Amino acid sequence: MTKPSDVQPIRAADVTNYDHEADVLVVGFGVAGGAAAYEAAAAGAEVIVLERASGPGGSSAQSGGELYLGGGTAVQESHGFSGDTPEAMFQYLRAALGPNADEEKLRLYCDGSVEHFGWFRDRIGLEFGQDFFDRPTWMPLAPTDGLMWLGENAWPYNELSDVVVPRGHRPAAPGFAGSLVMERMVAAVAEVGAVTHVDTRAAKLIVDGDRVVGLTARQFGKDVTYRARKGVVLTTGGFVDNEEMLVDHCPLLLGHGKVSDGLDDGSGIRMAQAIGAATRRMSMCQVAYTANPAMTARGMLVNGRAQRFHNEDTYPGLWSEAAIREPGKVWVIMDETGFEEVPPMDGLGLQPAFAAETIEELAEEIGLDPRALAQTVENYNAGARAGKDALGKDPSWLRELTGPFAAFDPAKGLSPYAETPPESTGYAGFTLGGLHTTVDGEVLSISGEPIAGLYAAGRASSGMHGEGYISGTSLGDGSFFGRRAGRAVAGTR
To answer: Is the pTM of this model over 0.85?
Structure first.
């Protein structure tokens, strides 16, 4: 159990000696910490990055590696999507990350997206795949897949603007690309002169009056003190691994899987709260339901009442957020024709949990009301015949479901070979809320004033998101506002 005393600040007057000193201390070396460290060091500041693990990367290194970028990047242009604008990007993200997305941060992010793409390419050395993946998916697996749809072409988002273009940018790596992003980030940070101290867990902030001037840490079983001449940047991640904080702030994630490196325990948030920092939107989170998008697009998602609740061809994180709030287990229902249409690479070798000749028999097998499920299929088929789905699924994915029928249980995961724990719910998530910051990463007090010498970025802060999420906006938000925090603490903004 965490205790308030674990994070209570230390007065500078009580510190007799500093073991290390730098202009800027960055706490946590994921993508936000790396971006902050890079910009601060590139501006001429002496920078030390503290990482509690034995090496950099954090949850960023374990991510899919997608970056949500647009406005007319070179990758978009190379695939013939030449009409994108910051305004069109803003309109989409405001809707998809909402309700209640942070419009000030979002506007800056969209306006600066092309420049941010160039920073990743030219300064960090990140290369992007040359192919366009144009089908529903959680994540393309080929290293050549450099651009993907992330819901922009699905209803209702395709009606927000005349500009409907993909903005999911994929680094050139097979499968999960987060490790490549962080590999290049670590090299770039070292090249500009920032120093990294691993196996160093920040513990308490050191304050001189109302100003943060350093911190204490534990390093190989010893207490170590660090002085920051200009400021401290907290990029310690969210709090999905802290059960007490989930109970207090984000109970929706209780009992489900966690998307993290196991160290997203809210420690940075708590350290800042201990000196009066404000938090924002702590109940916001992202949840992924491990249904296969290639199958949902060709079939339907139904809840415990055998009813559809969302168009299945959109970004899967959006129907995941809806699914966790639906009654009962959510199933993927397909017919044999749809199942056989799934490309082998997209199908991932998955086999149905249940199959039956008629939809009524299938309903009996999975514990749904046979009449209700039969009516749901008939309603879906009527929409397919008319070319207009009641929930807005694009006509290109509509086809009458005729049987034999199959049901897939997302709680079994996306790998046919994985050992699924019996307690798995099929859902896994992470938190989006955190410290209340300005667009330059200044941490605000509960009175609304910046706390001198304290900055935050990434999942330790409350970023662009409202109640929605799109892949690539964690790495995108963390790196973009990490950069701004790095420049601000170094005194160049």
So the answer is: yes
